[in-house]
Amino acid sequence: MVGTGGPVATFSVWDYVVFAVTILGAAGIGLFQAIRGRKESSSAEFLLGGRQMTAVPVAMSLTASFMSGITVIGTPAEAYQFGAAFWIFGISYTIMSTITAEIFVPLFYRLAITITGLDLWGVLVATGLVCILYCSLGGLKAVIWTDVFQMGIMLAGFVAVIARGAVIRGGLGQIWEDAGQGGRLNAFDFDPNPLKRHTFWSIVIGGSIMWVSIYSINQSQVQRYISCKTLGHAKMSLYVNMVGLWVTVSLAVFSGLTMYSIYKNCDPLSNGDVTASDQLLPYLVMDILGDFPGIPGLFVAAAYSGTLSTVSSSINALVAVTVEDFIFPVWKNLTQKQISWLNMGLSIFFGGVCIGMAGVASMMGGVLQAALSIFGMISGPLLGLYLLGMLFRTSNSIGGLVGMVIGLVLTLWVGIGGQVYPPTADMTNPLPLTTAGCNNTMTQNYTTTSPWSTSASLTTPSNFRPDLADSWYSLSYVYLSLLGMLVTMVCGLLISAITGKPLVLYDRCKMLILIHFLIFKKKKSSNGPFEKR
Residue 250 and residue 225: Cα distance in Å, rounded? Predict the structure, then answer.
């Protein structure tokens, strides 16, 4: 019986068929783009899609790149365990989209430069190979159009879960009522305490900065903006992406509420049916959709498609940075054919690196908080460095570098400390779950404590907890990006004042912009790698 614990169905032949067709479809898009653009083999075509992309496909690609397999797997589990507070990130997406579209996109667009069940290893290798195939053959156009296809698959997976859950529970209204009775709809916590994991303020303020750092200066995202045919299309892609983020996070959170409605009396995690929170949604799918051949395969394809979009984006971005910042400055006389082979070779190399890194990541804890924490720790100081150079004439390169290093060390200290000594339950606020209604309970009437204490990749003896663990290390992961940005800017300004070389960083930024602009104009008028055909 659904929702009472125990074994669930496994993949049928039709599930494998649906899964395989989805993956082959993604690879087919890459092949199609490669054949379609075989006469346009310039670097601009490969890395920037010839700058002929329109707003809607770029917007869907932007959404799919970061609302990926992490969203498909992690967000429903978040809503199931902690409630609907994650929904408030919709406000952060609005702030992020506006700032990025109106401040960062015009700058980068005008520059027109590429700036700086299943067997685990079988899945990792297959993902890498498929991404390598369409990235190396089709370039950015293949990545974008494949993301469009994968975005549709991701949304279809969420809809299938919600629709079947509504049938089982007697309608969407019953799911909403169950979520309310279970405390899952109490999303607006206005406590200003920065140590509490999710509050209105931490998500709106910290979350906005985090997503601005991800969308405004991230290589794979900027590369998409400047692939648009006009600045208007580039800006519009951000606003359409904002709507896509709203839809995606709403479906993901409601999938989590659906999960709670079904398992409110029998928590699979407490009952031992799954061993980690990231397994909750796949378990639900096999539990409620196992009798429908092909539908579980669609869900796995949805999660897998999200992974493909993220990996492909990363590969293409890494190739762009390597070619533009390391290859071209050293080897300036490469032919178009040499550049094309170089792009494809680097795609294969970075695809192999991604496969290896994915194996390492499989040993980490919960995917959602882990991914966002890493984003915050790394991208916050980088955003601070960009803002330092863009806004302050008194900054210099020494101050910028030292400030970024200090910001990075500080965020890594807090972030890693939070993994070693997870925050207590009164800061994370996990909501109660029970196994009272399970048919095969391992422990009766068990209410969960903080799941992050069991999913952390680094553990220490339970009887040792330093004073910093309940203060500094308990800082909400959403604030890591804000912390890194502020520390980088403040330290950068102080070091700049001490070293006494004002205007250097500011003027250097202006000079680099001018140089890149002149190079771009020259290449457009010659037979260089950015020539339009």
Answer: 25
By the 8 A CB rule, do 55 and 236 touch? Answer: yes
Instruction: pLDDT band for 448, please (50, 70, 90 cuts).
Output: very low
**Which residue bears the tokens 């204490």?**
453
What is the enclosing helix (H) or strand (E) of 494?
helix 480-499
| 32/255 Cα distance (integer angstroms) | 34
* 291 three-state secondary structure: coil
Classify the phi-psi angles of 224: left when phi > 0, otherwise alpha if psi is within -120 to 50, otherwise beta. Answer: alpha
Structure tokens at 16: 């494998």
> How far, CA to CA in Å, does 232 sit from each of 106, 148, 251, 517?
9, 20, 29, 20
Q: Which residues pair with 228 in a beta bridge?
A: 53
The rounded distance, in Å, linking the Cα atoms of 82 and 325 is 43
pLDDT digits (tens, 9 = 90+) for 373-403: 777 788 889 889 888 888 888 888 888 889 9
The residue whose two tokens read 């075989």 is 38
SS3 content of the chain, % helix, strand, coil (to 5): 70, 0, 30
pLDDT in tens, 70-93: 677 788 888 988 998 989 989 998
Q: CA-based diameter of the chain, in Å?
A: 75
Read off the tokens for 266: 């029998």
pTM of the shown model? 0.73
Residue 451 in tokens: 């799941």
Residue 130 CB contacts under 8 Å (≥ 6 apart), including other chains = 23, 26, 27, 308
Bridge partners, residue 53, by sequence: 228
Cβ-proximal residues to 143 (8 Å cutoff; 6+ apart), any chain: 61, 134, 135, 312, 313, 316
